[in-house]
Amino acid sequence: AEPPVPPAGLQRYLPMVNRWVGALRYAGLLALFGIVYLLLLRPVKKQMLAAFQGVSARLPEGAATAGLPAAPAAGVSLSAGAGMQLESGPAADSQRALQLKQHVVNTVRKEPVGASRVIQGWIASGEESI
């Protein structure tokens, strides 16, 4: 009769692991969540908080607590104004872009709710094409 061969390597720990397999699953899930939180969620949270703080710092006083209007504005027209000229060339293109930008800024200041709906529509149409 030969003496029994002692367990090698990981076989020594196999009976103990089998007894604690349920608890080890939860510990593994907890460790996985911790890694995902540290590598993904925490940096995204920091970026979002920094962006929100930047936006709130740029808002005029009282704008953060001001309520929205009771009736939302109808659609916002962002078409070219009567003063915009349609010319060609790089100088005309930059001039037209500047005029369009100014027109959009003025429209957003006049009707922010309607302009936000237009932007939401642009985002939604962009997501559908992806």
Summarize the structure.
The chain is an all-alpha fold.
Describe this structure in words.
The protein has 130 residues and is an all-alpha fold. 63% of the residues lie in helices and 0% in strands. The longest helix has 38 residues. The chain is rod-shaped. 0% of the residues are buried.
Shape: rod-shaped
**Helical fraction:** 55-70%
The SSE order reads: HHHH
Biggest sheet features: none
Characteristic terms for this protein:
4 helices, 130 residues, mainly alpha, 0% strand
Write the SSE topology.
Blueprint: H1 14-19, H2 21-58, H3 90-110, H4 112-128
Helix pairs in contact: 3-4
